[in-house]
Amino acid sequence: MAQENSSTITELLLVGFSNHPQAEIPLFFLFSGVYLVNLFGNTAVIVLVVIDSCLKTPMYFFLCHLAFLNIFYTTAVVPKMLFNLLASKKVISYELCIAQTYISLLMGAAECIILAIMALDRYVAICYPLRYLLIMNWSVCVQLSVGAWTISFFVSVVPLYFTMLPLCSPYTVDHIFCEVPVLLHMVCADTSLKETMMVIGASGTVLLPFLLITLSYLRILVAVMRMYSAEGRKKAFSVCSSHLTVVTIYYGTGIFMYMRPKSLYSAEGDKPISLFYAVINPALNPLIYSLRNKEVTGALKRLLERWRVSQNQKILP
Questions:
Q1: What local confidence, expressed as pLDDT, does residue 265 receive?
Q2: pLDDT tens sequence across 198-218
Q3: What are phi and psi of 92, to 5 degrees?
Q4: Could you read off the pLDDT of 34-72 as tens digits, one per residue?
């Protein structure tokens, strides 16, 4: 295979769903709808938290970070995917491909750490309710969020920048967007070290946060089982159920994609997996948190009521 300096590569073929041309138009409308749900849902979460005083708590502060992450991640992936579903020449520029690779790593690592912080927040809220606001004060929340993004950057983007290997022709990305497991198949040199580094990096950004989440919920489970009130146990489980649902969906797909050897890669099999955690899951997150959370639905009702009142005042002379 011919090796070429990355500076001379202008574009790559992005296969996407071109192997199923009859499905491209229906998929365009489906993914357009999913993307709009993602934008509207996650933006609504951020707006509600910003304007509603009842949602100005640590849990919703971190939920805003998750919502921003969902918007940013899918915006880096979906518009180009939608364009290629309608285009006759399905290509992606080298710069955008590399940008998608960096963004997917950064957003993936950040989501894992933020989900772990949210689990820790739930642990403190349930196990230390009287000291909750003292422990999870705004200074701590800001430090945790800054730390999450900073650590994610230095354990994902920086290592990839210094270990990026040249690609070989043909420059064909048999995937829906560019990410590390896919680009490993386009590298000329031996990728065993790169694969090892990817697994080690994933262990730090995926398994360690997952371990923290598991330990937090084990402690929460013990604390809930000790509650005498059935209503208290029900409320505690209700608070945690949305977060557990998001964690299960995200980690199930992410671990499979990033913590396995290159030999187990399957282009057609991995496209739906990446599609789920990069496109569909971000759209599901606000629905999961909103539909199963009385505080969010209550804030939405208050916002709609204020809007209705303001409209009536405009109509009145």
A1: 66
A2: 667 667 777 788 888 888 888
A3: -140, 135
A4: 999 999 999 988 988 888 888 888 988 999 999 999 999
Nearest 10 degrees: CA dihedral of 141, 203, 154, 35?
-70
Q: Where in 60-110 does DSSP place strands (E)?
A: 91-93
Distance, CA of 59 to CA of 245 (rounded, Å): 16
Do strands 91-93 and 11-14 pair parallel, antiparallel, or not at all (unpaired)?
antiparallel
- What single DSSP character describes residue 292? T
**Given this model, what pLDDT does residue 108 score?**
87
Structure tokens at 301: 């009702």
As given in the structure block, the two tokens for residue 274 are: 């990446």
Q: Judge contact between 220 and 236, C-beta under 8 A.
A: yes
Buried b (16+ CB within 10 A) or exposed e, 176-203: bbbbbbbbbbbbeeebeebbeebeebbe
**Strand duo 172-173 + 11-14: pairing:** parallel
Residue 226 DSSP code: T
Distance of CA 73 to the CA centre of its chain: 7
Q: Report which residue type is found at 312.
A: N
Give the DSSP letter of residue 53: G
